[in-house]
Design a protein that fits this description.
The protein has helices at 3-10, 20-26, 37-40, 42-54, 69-73, 81-99, 124-141, 154-167, 190-200, 213-226, 254-266, 280-297, 322-325, 336-342, 361-372, 392-402, 418-430, 460-471, 500-512, 526-540; strands spanning 13-14, 59-61, 104-109, 145-151, 172-176, 204-209, 231-236, 242-244, 247-249, 271-272, 349-352, 377-380, 406-412, 435-439, 488-493, 517-522, 547-550. By secondary structure, it is of the alpha/beta class. An eight-stranded parallel beta sheet has the order 1-10-7-6-5-4-3-2. It is elongated, with a radius of gyration of 29 Å. Mean pLDDT is 90; it is low at 311-320.
Length: 560
């Protein structure tokens, strides 16, 4: 069975909401071709997908509802079918990549916008060719299923489903729209439509758009009665719209949608979502309603339901983003360590070197002791003196999990390419290690692996800029990450250097690149620090960040 159908048979799924409504809110014109925004404003489309992903959806529709040859011809864009459909699916694939969880991509296909002959001007073969063209591109681009929606003519929808069956083996969801009396524009009832679409080869039969959730419930009951074992989808408008000064306004709110979502699920809907007028507010409310429904269905001895927590990370970057507008407000809060520093608290961090072994019990016990004695964090060195040791990130994770104390990860550019640095930072963020000390690192010639080759694609200044860019929601190449990195960036400074002016200038570049605080090399004379501080303030003004002074207990005569 196709993975989408398998999931749909196991438990209900959640689809996203309106795209057009969101694009109009961002400034799109009612008269323009919205599908052209895939090329002209891809950032708009991607951001809307991202906010829906953050709202907890299982399915995202590609922005291709009107991307067929007939509709695009109205705007002189009939030759853009392949470009628009292919790029639209890619936008969703990019969003799924950064979402970090399973999301199905629905290749969205709407009616041609012209009635079929003899009522309208579109010959049957012309319709078949138009659907074949769009379906072929969506399939090639990587859609997981085909969603035909907002059809009012069942004969046109039957043709579309038949072509889909000929072209590919993707699951087919066929959805009609109904009037207030529960009938189509041609007077057919929902039970009749359901049986015809199942006979044509649809895997799931749906109702969408129409006049709002309440009326749709009656339609769903009729569909379910006609085919009790079939799969059904329900995606209502946010009520019946009113047009005010050229814009449509929808009355149904998110709380009401959540209540209706529960009724849809109780009536047998396996896929729920939103159509015109719905926003991430509505979809988040439906996610919460679906989670509650799944928990109630979890019977003793049965398999645990898949509960998707609504992701709170902001999908990036802009000062007035959709994420903020629609309440996706974020786990991009400062780390506890940074909050303490900003509050003026005296902070203590204890440094630990990773073991030259496969276990780190001693280091973990040391971290537990440091916490008991009042330490705020443990900073973990990265193969200091260029000697091979356990990876610093691995030890940080063990300490945070077993000692329950925050860590500061030393990250050196010595051993990692530009790609490797970014990969390790993404991994650290995923594992909950968010305090990073950006270092260049000791050269391998100092250590016990002199045959090792240093990388140094960037130095510590470049690393600070990479981490700061993650904090803005982008990788080094400018690709969106889908959320902010929320790293706390620490940098080193050395008040013991002979050339303090050079050290001050390098330090200024680090803090200008986005560093939040600094940690000094160990000093044994306070005047060393006051000299460094004076030179900085003479050259650049007020010292910009909190400081953790390095204090090194001497272990013996040799150490001294």
């Amino acid at each position: 069975m196709h993975p989408f159908l398998q999931k749909l048979n196991e438990h209900p799924l959640l689809c996203d909401g309106a795209m057009g409504t969101m694009l109009f809110a961002k400034g799109a014109s009612i008269d323009q071709c919205l599908e052209q925004l895939i090329v002209d404003r891809p950032g708009w489309v991607r951001e809307i997908h991202q906010v829906y992903a953050s709202a907890g959806v299982d399915v995202i529709k590609s922005h291709t509802f009107g991307a067929n040859r007939v509709r695009l011809a109205d705007h002189g864009l009939a030759d853009k079918v392949r470009e628009f459909n292919f790029k639209a699916v890619k936008l969703v694939r990019d969003v799924r990549e950064v979402a970090g969880r399973s999301i199905f991509i629905a290749g969205n296909i709407g009616p041609l916008g012209r009635r079929l002959h003899p009522i309208g001007p579109i010959a049957e073969q012309e319709a078949r060719d138009a659907y074949r063209e769009q379906i072929s591109v969506l399939w090639e681009a990587g859609a997981d299923l085909l969603l035909f929606e907002t059809f009012s003519d069942v004969e046109e929808l039957e043709i579309a489903v038949q072509i889909a069956k000929e072209v590919c083996d993707l699951p087919i969801l066929a959805s009609m729209t109904y009037a207030e009396d529960g009938r189509t524009a041609t007077g057919l009832r929902a039970d009749t439509i359901t049986l015809r679409l199942l006979a044509a080869g649809a895997n799931c039969v749906g109702v969408n758009c129409s006049v709002g959730p309440a009326q749709m419930l009656d339609t769903l009951r009729a569909m379910h009665k006609a085919a009790p074992n079939a799969l059904f989808s329900v995606m209502p408008n946010a009520g019946f719209p009113e047009r005010v000064e050229g814009r449509f306004y929808y009355p149904a709110g998110a709380e009401y949608f959540a209540q209706q979502a529960t009724l849809f699920l109780q009536q047998g809907a396996q896929l729920i979502g939103g159509c015109c007028g719905t926003t991430p507010f509505h979809i988040r409310a439906m996610r919460n309603a679906l989670n509650e429904y799944l928990l109630r269905q979890n019977t003793p001895g049965g398999s645990a339901p898949e509960i998707i927590t609504v992701r709170e990370e902001v999908p990036a970057h802009r000062a007035s983003s959709l994420a903020d507008d629609y309440g996706v407000t974020g786990e991009d809060q400062p780390t506890q360590l940074l909050r303490k520093l900003r509050a003026g608290k005296f902070v203590i961090s204890v440094e630990v070197d990773p073991p030259r072994a496969f276990t780190a019990q001693k280091q973990i016990e040391g971290a537990q002791h440091a916490k008991r004695m009042g330490a705020d964090a443990v900073n973990v060195a990265d193969s200091p003196m260029a000697r091979v040791r356990m990876g610093a990130q691995a030890l940080c994770v063990q300490i945070q999990q077993q000692a329950q104390i925050e860590t500061i990860l030393h990250c050196t550019t010595r051993d990692r390419s530009l790609m490797g640095l970014q990969s390790d930072l993404i991994g650290a963020r995923a594992l909950g290690v968010r305090n990073i000390l950006a270092l260049t690192g000791d050269p391998p010639s100092l250590g016990d692996s002199k045959q090792s080759t240093a990388v140094y694609d960037v130095d510590s200044i470049g690393l600070v800029r990479i981490i700061d860019k993650f904090n803005q929601g982008f990788d080094q190449s400018g690709q969106e990450m889908g959320q902010r990195g929320a790293f706390t960036i620490a940098v080193a400074c050395d008040p013991t250097r002979a050339n303090l002016v050079e050290e001050v200038d390098r330090f200024h570049q680090k803090v200008s690149g986005g560093a939040h605080f600094t940690m000094t090399q160990p000093i044994f004379e306070p005047k060393l620090w006051s000299n460094f501080l004076s030179i900085y303030e003479e050259r650049y003004g007020e010292f910009p960040v909190p400081v953790l002074i390095g204090v090194l207990p001497l272990q013996g005569h040799k150490h001294a």
